[in-house]
Amino acid sequence: MGVALISSPAFPSVFLFSLITVCLIPELTLAAGITRHYKFDIKLQNVTRLCHTKSIITVNGQFPGPRIVAREGDHLLIKVVNHVQKNISIHWHGIRQFQTGWADGPAYVTQCPIQTGQSYVYNFTIVGQRGTLFWHAHISWLRSTVYGPLIILPKRGVPYPFTKPNNEVPIIFGEWWNADPEAVITQALQTGGGPNISDAYTINGLPGPLYNCSAKDTFKLKVKPRKTYLLRFINAALNDELFFSIANHTLTVVEADAVYVKPFETNTLLISPGQTTNVLLKTKPNFPNATFFMTARPYVTGLGTFDNSSVAGILEYEFSSKTKGLSSNISIKKLPRFKPVLPPLNDTSFATNFSNKLRSLASAQFPANVPQKVDKRFFFTIGLGTNPCDQNNQTCQGPNGTRFAASINNISFAVPTTALLQAHFFGQSNGVYNPNFPISPLIPFNYTGNPPNNTMVSNGTKLVVLTFNTSVELVLQDTSILGAESHPLHLHGFNFFVVGQGFGNFDQNKDPENFNLVDPVERNTVGVPSGGWVAIRFLADNPGVWFMHCHLEIHTSWGLKMAWLVLDGKLPNQKLLPPPADLPKC
Using CA atoms, how far apart are residues 398 and 558, in angstroms rounded to an integer? Predict the structure, then answer.
């Protein structure tokens, strides 16, 4: 199905995706700093993909869900009403949530989930942010169908720091299971083995012509010659990093995770789950007498099974005045269609080179406020491990009859039964969490060398406690336990600067000499290199409890997650606001 290209009309108060089309983002006509109201009805909807119809959990019956559009400085009130039999919570991925941690959304971290028949109003202001983000469910695997774009336009009168596009379009990647994803993860956790893989990848909810029975469910981007388009890419897939390319076209990267970057050209993007990337597409000067596949497929470094398929949309040029007398449908079908060449599935060299090109603008208007001094340093190992089978299931389907686990500093996060932020705020942390998460591995080892014989993890609900305005340096080290693997790590409540990365074991005596403290990219989700490390810095200037986890959903389910507790500062604007009256209860 096609994309309707609209040239900047007034934006309605609520603008939703249709099931099979995606419209471009028009400019808002209202002034900056206003309050915008949205309503999310969590409801079941029958949806057909791959000739398979099933009932899925949606927002407002839409798949993908409705598009949230606002300007920097706007205040959002989003009422979520749960009409289904599953508990739900919504995370506004990448929103800083200054003083409004109650609106961040991860279940049992900042809130108890919204139960059946209940509602909750997410109430927050967009402070100092503009660009492409997204929202998604943040409980179990419900985000497989509950997700949508969150577009933040600059304040009125503030231009983009790049060529003004003629049109804009969000392109959101996802995954489709013919089975119920909740049943998939339930089975995996019960057996201790890996989950069944998805049946297709999707672009704006559509699998496209490379899959069986899906030619009619194809995302089409219709463009005109000599135009510039801003494409807003979002990876909402559950378990796969993705390469993407448009045949015979060059893309100019201008933003990552809602932060402007120094523009650079590329034929291929790499985008991990939880990441967003804005690019400029300059179309050809004349009608090309061809159509072009827009294709994505996974970048894979781990040893587990994965969905080794490709999703495709189609880039079509609209007929010019010279060709409008022809039958467009018949003529386009007869045109040759070009396919892009994507990197090999395990091309870590491309992944490294691509990530190294991302640099902050570091301009007067958009500075890179990298912490130059560090108050606290942390060294976290991340990777897979194992847990023993329980007594009722003597043989699990994980390695050597164990059950798969994942950990940070060998601690696999145990999800509490009440929300961490509520426990902290009301002084009821005893029995809920321990404030003693280790700053480094308790038992050092050759992290990327031969793995240790003991792959068992410990389990617990532990937090790192930071005083307000602490400057943090965190090194995230991949491990070879059960195989080295790339991990997209997402930090809630903050952006951070990626000051360095490398392969092998981090050397604290040598590697910091090469840190980029001038113009490192600023992100909320970073890929930890397979068999390597990444160093980030951030300022703990946001009071609350903030989740950090791998955005490969299976790794999160296995425990690759932890939380930071940032204490209140002394001034009123440095304190967490009181919880809202309608905050859900566990």
Answer: 12
